[in-house]
Every structure is written in structure tokens, then in C-alpha cells.
Amino acid sequence: MGITLNYVVKRIVFSTAIVLGISIITYVFIYLAPGDPAYVWAGRPRGPLASEAIAKARVELGLDQPIYVQFSLHVFRFFSGNWGLSIRFKQSVFSLVMRNFASTLELLLVSFTISIPIGLLLGIYSSLYRGSRIDAAINSLSIVLSNTPRFWIGLAMLLAFTSLNIPTYGRISDNFRGELIERIGLYLVDSLLQGRLDIFLDVFIRIIPPALALSLYPIGAIARVTRISLSEALQEEFVREAVSLGLPRNIVVYGYALRGLIPSLVQAIGLFFSYSLIEAMAVEYVFGREGLGNLLVKAIPANDFPLVTAALVIVALVYVVTNTVADIVQALINPRVTM
Amino acid sequence: MIKRVLKSINSLAFPISVWRKRITFRIGLIITTAILLAGAAGGLLPLIYGWDIGFRIVGESFQPPSLGHVFGTDDLGRDMFIRILMGTSRALAQTTIVIVLSLFIGLFVGAITAYYKGFVEKALLYVTELFLAIPSILLALVFVILFGRGALTVSLALVVSWWSWYGRFAYLQARAVRDLDFIVLAEHYGLPGIYIIFRHIVPNIMSPIFIQALTDAGSVVIELATINFLIGVGTTSIEEPDWGLMLGYGVRYIFNYWWIPLLPGLFIVLMALGFALIGDSLYEEMHPQLKRRWKLWF
Amino acid sequence: MTYKPTPSVKRVVAYAYRDAITGIDPGVEFDTGVVVLHLIYEPLLKYDPLKNEFTPLLAVSWEKINDTAWLFVLRDGVKFQDGTPLDAEAVKFSIERTRDIYSETGRGPGYIWSCVEEVIVVNRTAVLFKLSYPARVDLIASGAYGAFIYSPKVVEYSGATSPIDPRLEEWFNEGNAIGTGPYKLASYRPESEVRLVKNDEWWGWKEVNNPSPPDEVIVKIIETPEAQESGLRAKSIDIATNIPRVSIPGLESQGYSKVVISSYHNFILVFNTRRYPTNIVEVRKAIAYAIPYDELINTVLRGYGRIGSGLVPYGFPGYIENLTYKHDLSLAQKLLEEAGLAGRISLEIVITAGYEEEEKFASLLKDSLAKLGIELTITSLPWEFVKERGASVWVNPNEAPHLIINDWWPTYPSPYEYYYIFHKDDKEWNWAGYEDEEYSQIIDEAFVLEGVDWAKSMELYAEAAQKIFNNAIAINLWDMMHIYVYDGGKLVFREEAFNPLYSYVIFFQYVEVKT
Fold first, then answer.
1. What is the CATH number of the domain that holds A268?
2. Cβ of B280 and A300 within 8 Å?
3. Considering only CB atoms, which chain A residues are within 8 Å of B265?
4. Interface membership of C360 toward B (CB under 8 Å)
5. What tens digit of pLDDT does each residue of B251-291 get?
6. Predicted-complex ipTM score
7. Residues of A in contact with C229 (CB under 8 A)
8. Which of B287, C173, C265, C463 is most buried (most C-beta within 10 Å)?
9. B75 in a domain, yes or no?
């Protein structure tokens, strides 16, 4: 087993460093940005005493203190778990971020469940038939897929599905909104836990088009990576040996050649997953779904630094966690890899 | 002199052979040439017709494509064809800046990382990974706040976001080259590290990375367009004929006046596709793999 | 695992609103939250400025006893949504809290109650407003903001120590509401949607006599026009408020309907009077004459709107006709020459991002000014940044833009709400940097006279308006009309569902849902 304590410690340190880095960047960024969080916190006052209200808000937010004091308070509170109230929405930052993150996460998970198998299959087939028309076709397809803006495809799908009268806008039908009991925040899971198949189907139908739109780039990318790596792997000596020993094609390919790919594949997938987090923003926008992107778009102009920091930290953490998981999977599969 | 000319003709042999062999290359080259021409035209238009040619209201709004206005008019009566051409030159200029700068930074950082092992290597690797993790939109926003809006600011922000991609790639390539005999010999002779990197390592890892960059040009265009689509900070004013911005403002008309958002979108895809096809077919050529041999086996 | 078909006949209406909800504390909320608040809470009265008519809500009768005392008699038998009855104590509590939060912290619309020295509980169903100076309490009590009545028990529920303890506001914003209105708050997610369910115990159902009001109202936050249009077409929204105007005929031909409601929401172009060259009157007037007013109606508003005259919008108390300029480029040219301006001038205009009308106006103006040799740079920013740049005219006038558009709507029916924008003491909203003693005095006097001699008060306001017009300080470009596009097959709106004084509020108790 390749995972050592050393590795775990390194990872934790790295994650903390990233979180700290993001807090710093966000704070500086909001500090320098035009706009005044105190104005928003004061409720955008319009009365004659508005200036006083804004001044008071400034004190409440601690903005009258020197920057290093402000910043240390901010970081300290953040790490101690008190994420505070959102300046824009006046609600707990934690619950705001969590419920929107759940939506984005659900979309990403479904998207990856679609893209990994399809991408793999396409890659394998084009690799096996390399140089032939099929290969060229698949290759060109994956190039086209990776080079089309996600929101464009999303828009096209939205239009297509709407004209077919299939509901796809939003996360869940309004009729079910009030009925679903949210336990985890992943509606697909929650509806099943509640035993409501009708709600499950509704959520499912609505999540497929955006997930598909989101998955096109990963499909293309995974297919290409698979194709290249598999082609190289198939040239190795052991393949020839296996064939000469009379092993059927499928076993050679799936059982042996692919094994060697898994590390780089897993790493690539990890990279794409975190990259997709931002892409998901555009897709959510088009399909009217809640999500981190939606939240950030509203919070940034309001200089809502507690909310923006929290959201960005989540994004960074997803990246770190995904890469860590990718590394761990690699280590598990290939005991020769040491961390 | 003649030798030089012959040499350069010689180096064209490779692309020419690719042209002959691969249809994807041909398609890609045709598309890209068309885009380049459009970009040139777009760059010349203000010089010929005046500084406000991109904003001028020339007719009725919402005219569909016709003889008078090849791409129709937009919601204010501006000619779409002119705006798309100008958008092409903008896109090309920005993409070039991003690719060229990030390529060079990435190449050198990658080579340095591979050459000096040990602590320098570990540190630079961490830095590279850190920058790889930062989403480009965020970087773009930060740059805009620090330096103001505009195409140049966003392009530079993207450079800071993209170099790490090439940095990593270069590192992997350079690692293989680093331990080759002639490098080690050069070291023994006491040649300075910088010299070795510049003169020996980089030239040997350049081509695959160049090709990668060419293929990536597409992604860069799309990223630039996405940033302007969502938050429009890559322009100084909402009037500017930028593809992403035009898409962003045009998408609300998708149901009734489809050409307003469709055309900029189409051009984005075309430009991305053109570069990607060229890059990909060049890559294929450079890595001739055993074709179908094992089809005989299976 | 069960498969339950959709429960029979539940009437759900989804209303798309373009901006996130800013809060739902009925005593503090001053912004988009009213869309929700007017369904959960009620003020004492409702007012229709066009007809100059009051509708009794929580008060059934009211009279002015003398200049500084007004008596209101409350409706009997009304209950709050937690079961406690509405009484004079609740009225006293609500109004004094709203007033006190403002005077203590400067936040919220409580300034409308500054004239109230004390709310006296006469008996269980009557209150006496004791004023410190004369004022139109009936108009104030029917305001769009800050006039809601809520139960004193909220202090207890929230664990606050006093009415003005911030804890109470936090409690409201966590998603709690106890009002008397036709709908109850079911869930509150200000960034994406707010859900309301029908309050069967509302006193007004008998009077309204609506056999099929919505059982559930969902206010969805959808910012972009294309998203609203998609949502409408996809049937996940029933009412859209931000459809691109050009798409409306197309939607109508496909079976959707529209309602056009005039509003007191107007768009005021403000000149920076402290920066060259807009500090010169002739230059400002020249720009005023360069604005293509006809095209405004046709291209920008697509016919849905009215060119503004004076600062006060049409139909609002204090509206004045004929305070308009006209589109005349040669006159503009002459004025520029008089001012001695030569060569190419560069001006900057700041507009709010996402406001289609402002964007179009700016582009048209740019084209028009180019003909005069003036280059206009259009900067489009999110609202909070627009405000910051506008207010910077007091701090650093040469950094503030030459032109800026401020969209405005009133808190309650008084012309002062509009004229105050350019008061010399208003450093937050006076983006013109206009510091005129006389003007400020006139409107202050007019305000005080409102409660005493309404006619004289209006005269004074007219004087002030003339000053603004003659000096071209600001131009009310247009009075906005709000267009609601909806699924005509599903909804029928009664007249009372809309009221221009309560912007973007749809009184769903007057909406009939067909199933």
C-alpha cells in the first residue's frame, strides 16, 4: 500500500495553504474592488439619514479598522467555522453555500457518470481501429465536442427540449417544490429516500440535458487521452505475447492493456472534474438551476466577501480533494506507486 | 542566400506532406485561412471607414441576413457583418497574445524545473500546480479590478492562468531530455545552466509543445468568449464588437432573431475548430503509430 | 416506493422577478423584498394615485382631528398568521419600531414616520397618531415601504431583547414572517426563490370573492431576459417581468398575454455639474437637445413608456406637464458653439448593467452625439458600482462620470421623494453635485406645507421643478411601464392585482387561476 502518513500530512498542509491563499486573494480583491459592502449591509438605504446608516454598517463590518486587523479577523473567523452572514442576502453563509453547492455537485456527478463510460468507450474504439475511418470520425467528433462553448450547447439543448415540451428548465417542477423533503440536498437521492418516484423522475429529466451539455467536453477529452494512451500501451511487448498465446482480444485489451492506463486516466479525470466546476456555472445559468455560479454572480457585485470567500474556498477544496482521491486511486491500483 | 531559401522550402516539406495525406489538415487550414483573412479585413475597416464603423447605426434594427446586410442587423440597427469581422481581428489578436506569452513562459519554467532538480524542482512544481488550480475567470476578475477592464487585461490574466499548462507539459518533456548524454556532457564542460536550457533543452522539446499550443488556441478563444459572455470585462464599453459580448447581449433574441447570437457563436466555434484540426492532424503526423497491425492479430 | 400522481387541483403560480430579494424585515426592508412583503403583511391603507382613492385594509376609517392628530379605527376580527389578534398595540409596536430603527441607525424607510411623535392606543381597535408637525398620515400609512403592521410577539419568537435589537431583523431574514396578509411564508431562499402558501384565515377572502386564487406562489429570481423567456416558454414560469420588448409580439402570437402597468419608476439622466464640460449650462442643454426622443419611444421602449416631464412621473402627485426638451441637433450645435467648445470632446456615461433600456438609450445617444463631434464612452456597471461612481461627485468630481442614469421610484406618495434627490444635503443620491441653497429651501418648505396647505405645497414644488429644467440639472428620460407577460390560458388578472404605487407587487389574491 503506497499511502503513507507523510503523504496525508503533505496533503493537509497543501489544502490549508490553498484555503489560506484563497482567503487572502478574496479579501484583497474585495477590498480593492469598487463598491461598498457597508452600503449593501445597511440595506441600500435611501432616506435622509442614509450616510449615517452606511457609516454604522461600516463599523459593524469592521471596515474601519486597519487592513491587517480586518484581514486577521476575517481569516480567524473563517477557520474557526464562523462563516458569518452574507452581506447581500443576510443569511448564514454556510447554509447559502451548502445548498447551492449541493445543486452544482449533483449536476457534476451526473455529468461525470455519463462522460466517463462514454468517453472511455469512444477512446477504446478509436484506438482499436486507429487509422481507419471510424477512428477519424470519432477523433473529429471529439475535437468538435471539446471546442464548442458549453453554454452554446446548453442553449441549443434547452431550445430543443422546450420545443419538444419536455420540461428541463430549473431543478425541479414547481408542483413538487413544496413536497420534497431535503435531507442531503441532492434531489435525486432525497426523492428516493422519500419514496417518491414521481419526483425522482422529474428531477432526473431536468438534470439530463444540462449534464449532457456539461459532459461533452470531458467526453471528448477522455476519449482523446484514452486513445493516445491505449495506442501506446498496445504496442508493448506483453500485448504481442498475449496475442500469440491465443488470448481473446477483449481480455487482452480490457484486462491488461487498460490497467496500465488507469493512473494517467484517473489523474486526467480528476483535473477535468475540477475544471468543470467553473464550466458548470455557465450551464446552470442557461438552465436556470441554483448553484455556486449563480451565487457568485450575485455576491461579487455586492462586495459580499464572506460569501465570495466561502464559495471560492469550496471550489478550491473540491479541486484538492479530487486530486487527492485521484492520487489515492492510483496508489490503490498500482502498488508500485509510492507517495 | 540560396541555401537559406532552399532550407526554408525544405522545412515546408512537412506541412505539405500533411496536406497531402490528411483531410482534417486541409479542412483546418482552409477554415483558419478564412478566419485570418476575416481578421485582416476587420482590422482594416476602421482605418478605411472611420473610428466609429463598428458602432454606426446603418439601418433598421432586427433585419435578417440579406443582400444589403449579409449577416443582418442587430437590435440597434448596426451591421452584423462589419461587427463580426472586427470581432475576428480582436479574437485573433487576443488569442495570439495569450498563446505566445504563455507558451514561452511555460516552456522556460518547465525546462528550468526539469533541469535543476531537488528543491527548485519541487518548489516550481508546486507553483505550477497552484496556478493550474486557479480558475481563469477569477484571475480575470482580479486583474480587471487591479488594472481596469479591457481586452489586454483579460488576455494577460489568461496568460497567467495558462502558462502552467505548458509549464507542466514542458517539464514532462524536458525531464526525458535532461538526462541524455549530450546534456550531461555539456554540464561537465562547465557550460552554464541557463545556456544549456536555452540552447539545448528548449529546442528539443519545442515542437510537441508548439503543436499543443496550436490545438489549444481553440480553447483560449472559447475561454475569452465565455468570460465576456458572462461578465463582459474583456471590453471597455458595451458597444465593442467582441464575439463573447455580442453573444451575451444577443442571446435574449435567440427565439425571434436567431442570427444575432448565432453568428458570433458560429465564428467562435469555427476559429476554435480550425486551429484544433490543424494542431491535431500535425500531431498525428508526428506520431505515426502502428496502424491496424494488430487488427491482423485480432 | 410509491408513485403518487400529482395531487389534484393545486394551483401553483411562478412569478419571475429579475433581482434577488434583499430582505424581509417589514420594518427595515427598503428594496426588492416588498414583492414578497405585500403578500404576507398589510399596511393600514392602500392608495391609488391615479384615482386618488384610498382602500381600507387594516384600518376601516380614519380622520384628521387637527393638524397634528389623526385617528384611525382598526378592522375587527383580523388575526395574525400565528393566531394572535390584530389590535392597537400591534399598530403602535410596528410603526414605532420602524420609526425608531431609522432614527437610531439611519436604516430603512422609517423616516416616513419621523413626523409621528407617538402612536397612542385609544382602545383595542383605535389608534391616535400624535404628530410633531403636520403631515398627511393617510398617504404615509399607505406607503409601499415601512407601513406594514406585524405582531409584537415577534420579539419573543426571535429571542430579541427589544424591538430594535438586531437579532429581530436576523430572525426575519432567516425566513420568518408573521403578518395578516393573504399568504404565508413557506420557504425563503433570497438568492433563488421564495415560496408562499395561501393563508386560509385571511379576513379578506370574503370581500375579494375569488373562487380560484393561487394556493402557492413562488417568486423566482431570474435575472436575464433570455432566461425568463426560456422559462416562460418551458412553462416553468407563469409570469415574466423582464422579457425583451421585441419578443413580446412573438410571444403574443403564440398565445401568451400581456399586461402593461404604468409605474412611478422613472429613469433620470443626471449631469455632473462639477466637471468640465458638463458644468456649463449650454453644454448640458445641448446634450438635452441631442437626445433622440422619438427614437426613445420607438426603439428603446418599443412603445411601452412615456417621455418624462419634470422629475415627477405621470400620474403621481405633483406631476408637471411640458417640462420637456425636443430633439434638435442644429440647436444643440449652436449651443455648443456659444459655449465655446471646439474640437472633439470626450464624455463618459455610466449606466446600470442589465437594464436593456439604459443600454439602448446610451447607444442611441452615442450615435447622436457623434454627429456633434462628441465621443461618448459607455460604461456599464452593476448597480452598486454605479451608485459609488455617482456619489463620488462630492469627493472627486473629475472622476465621476459626466452623465449617469439613476432609476428611481418613491417610497410613499409625495413629490418630495423625487425632488429630494437634488437637495444640497443629499450626498448619497445627488449625483449632479448640485448645491443650491434656494432650491433646497423651496422643497423643504413645500414638504412641511403638505400637511397644511396641499395646493400651496404643489406650487412651491413647481418652482423647484422649473429651476431644474432651466438649468438642465437632470432630465427624466422616461416613465417606465412594467410589462408582465404571462400564460393567458392559465391566469386571469383582476384590475386590483396591480397598483403603480407598489412596484412589481402582484396582489395574488386578485388573480384567478384556471386549471
1. 1.10.3720.10
2. no
3. 149, 152
4. yes
5. 888 888 888 888 898 899 899 888 888 888 887 777 766 55
6. 0.80
7. none
8. C173
9. yes
